[in-house]
Amino acid sequence: MVTKRDMILEAGIKVFSQKGYHHAKMEDIAVAAGIGKGTIYEYFSSKLQLFQEIMEAGLRQYQESVSTEKISQMGIAERIQKITAGHFYFCQNYKELSRILFWDTDIIDDELKDWFYNKRKEKEGVLEDLIRESIRSGELREVDAKLVTLMIGGILGQIWMPIVLEGWEAEAESTAWQITDLIMNGIVPST
Amino acid sequence: MVTKRDMILEAGIKVFSQKGYHHAKMEDIAVAAGIGKGTIYEYFSSKLQLFQEIMEAGLRQYQESVSTEKISQMGIAERIQKITAGHFYFCQNYKELSRILFWDTDIIDDELKDWFYNKRKEKEGVLEDLIRESIRSGELREVDAKLVTLMIGGILGQIWMPIVLEGWEAEAESTAWQITDLIMNGIVPST
Amino acid sequence: MVTKRDMILEAGIKVFSQKGYHHAKMEDIAVAAGIGKGTIYEYFSSKLQLFQEIMEAGLRQYQESVSTEKISQMGIAERIQKITAGHFYFCQNYKELSRILFWDTDIIDDELKDWFYNKRKEKEGVLEDLIRESIRSGELREVDAKLVTLMIGGILGQIWMPIVLEGWEAEAESTAWQITDLIMNGIVPST
Amino acid sequence: MVTKRDMILEAGIKVFSQKGYHHAKMEDIAVAAGIGKGTIYEYFSSKLQLFQEIMEAGLRQYQESVSTEKISQMGIAERIQKITAGHFYFCQNYKELSRILFWDTDIIDDELKDWFYNKRKEKEGVLEDLIRESIRSGELREVDAKLVTLMIGGILGQIWMPIVLEGWEAEAESTAWQITDLIMNGIVPST
DNA sequence: GATGAATGAGCATTCATTCAT
DNA sequence: CATGAATGAATGCTCATTCAT
């Protein structure tokens, strides 16, 4: 069942992603949700708190999309492909939400900023450990794990743009494989 | 000579990068520039225009840092390394400015957003052409030029973070080479 | 039998006296009465009307406490003592109510203000007549009846404070006699 | 010179005394002062702070009006007369201000309330000491100093009403003497 | 040119009141 | 009768911008 709370969250995602946090008026969100302005405050204590909830819920959903934990017997290439494909799916299916999560990282509130930054670091930490592990096992060559993590993170972050802003309708699975290939094998011709 | 206009731009960079566009007050900028609030309006017509000028000037300066046009006889690896190193230099030397350019891309104004997005596409177009050219010449294997461009762009964008937020003091030249190596040769062990 | 209406009045007295008219929320009163917010409106048409009813009922109750009409054969000193003692009783037994009546006379509504002011004038009129009568009969010396009325009214009004705010537990009857003595005989030593 | 700050205080006194704290809008005050809404905030940080300043300044001015400290060789009767006359003057000349100080003691802010209450207690303390002293010296008979203090305070508080609300234009000096006479000698005929 | 006092549009939030259940 | 979710009018406060000096 779609609760009124969900309707507000949905409306918040739409309005925040279109106008950004500061230009989004509570009234806009209320109108988008088809309710009165005051009703929002029955479910959320403030504009900031509504935004935070959207961020948290969005991040939770995103985590699920890119999680590879269930399949622990996976090689590093498969993992990178899974993460990439999951990211693709998420961006394509939750364009507005992904806009909020990956693009409009404005300074809204210091605490929120820190929270979000730490979430990101945490996520990167997992990936970095994975890479370090793969180097140790010989699956990967002796590369700088931190740099590789940044590289992968950057690619994912960048890919959001053409998908959401230009409506790039790439096929997630195969494109994810292409990207994985690039990361794994580089771009020079194999000798 | 440092004109009063430059002082304001400088102050704007500092304040905007610390507080973000919306939390930066014109008065803060005036104080940071050591002048009166009204004086800013002698040189810039509005807060938005001041911000735009900062963006434009910043982007111009950035272009110079990462430009490889002068040395046109360069191989693709050298070019990627030069761009990366230039990016590094820029981020390390203009931390505040780079924060504005690469991080706080809030929805401030639709026109500004479009303008900035187009600048980025333009820059990417140059890189994409370069890659296409290199594929044609056999320097690179048959990869998706667009994906590779996104990849490189993403890496550069991501690298900003640890430098500015965590004070990562990497040696630009050699780190740029490491990154170039990753892009060129991937991360799997060479067979 | 305690009707629901009475419960609301009771709750209103408590909440209004604790928070004042403007800071008292209808919901606070509903909670204090152990009922739903909407139910108040079944018995009172508005917040203001609820307040008015409390004032009216309070004033009626107060009138009874200080009334000396039944015993019309009473001397002026006895009357003053009775009024004072009645006032004492009322303040001690209905602290919250007396706070509303004698202290928080905020400008809530012009009509209410006028109504309350007239009630007061009316009450003072009775006292003033009484004093005038006593002067005529020689019970009192040739004093300004209006001033004496103000004096007595002021003393009663002031006495509320230490009782309610500081929990002054004076014995009503004897204290009322002391006050009467002060009013009657003044404070200079008898020659 | 009448500064803009003073104009705002003046306007605040007028509007607060007419409408009460809660019904007074910042815009009303601005209009009354003939200035823009935002200008008030150049001089006062909030509505509450503006009100506090009015209270403080008013009380300071009141203290001066009723002070008898300079003339320490005064008998108790003269003192009471001076205080009463000062109170009269103040109420007649600063009707609006006195309305705020002596009448609309709404629950606006707990801290403010406490502050005001303490000021009052303090003032009463001085008077009470004075009375106790006069009892010791034999100027007054053995009365309850606290009760007498309440009595005098109550009379003064009450006198405000007819002056401000009904425009009672009594001659301050002589009326103060009448009141003093009542307090000193009571209302019964001298034997 | 330079200034900063003055301005008022704009917005988050509160809460008395309504009404469908 | 009783309820409480929904509402929107009302208002304190911010800050980009103006303009008299």
What are its keywords?
2 domains, homotetramer, 0% strand, Tetracycline Repressor, domain 2, DNA-binding, 191 residues, 9 helices, Arc Repressor Mutant, subunit A, mainly alpha
Q: What kind of assembly state do the chains in view correspond to? A: homotetramer
| CATH architecture term of the largest domain in chain A | Orthogonal Bundle
The geometry of chain A reads as elongated
The succession of helices and strands of chain A, N to C, reads HHHHHHHHH
End-to-end CA span of chain A: 58 Å
Q: Structural class, from helix and strand content of chain A?
A: mainly alpha
CATH fold description of the largest domain in chain A: Tetracycline Repressor, domain 2
Mean pLDDT of chain A, nearest integer?
Answer: 90
Overview of the structural elements:
4 copies of one chain form a homotetramer. Chain A is mainly alpha-helical and 191 residues long. The first copy, chain A, folds into 2 domains: 1-44, Orthogonal Bundle (Arc Repressor Mutant, subunit A); 56-185, Tetracycline Repressor, domain 2, CATH 1.10.357.10. Chain A is 75% helix and 0% strand. Chain A contains 9 helices and no strands. Chain A has helices at residues 4-23, 26-33, 37-43, 47-66, 76-93, 95-102, 110-136, 145-166, 172-185. In chain A, helix 4 (47-66) crosses helix 6 (95-102). The model of chain A has no long low-confidence stretch (mean pLDDT 90). Chains in contact: A-B, C-D. Chains A and B meet through helix 1, helix 8 and helix 9 of A and helix 1, helix 8 and helix 9 of B. Chain B binds a DNA duplex (21 and 21 nucleotides) through residues 4, 25-27, 30, 35-39, 41-42, 46-47. Chains A, B, C, D: It holds the Pfam family TetR_C_24. Chains A, B, C, D: It comes from Syntrophomonas zehnderi OL-4. Chains A, B, C, D: This is Tetracycline transcriptional regulator, TetR-related, C-terminal. Chains A, B, C, D: Keywords: DNA-binding, Transcription, Transcription regulation. Chains A, B, C, D: InterPro entries: Homeodomain-like_sf (IPR009057), HTH-type_Tx_Regulator (IPR050624), HTH_TetR (IPR001647), KstR2_TetR_C (IPR041490), Tet_transcr_reg_TetR-rel_C_sf (IPR036271).
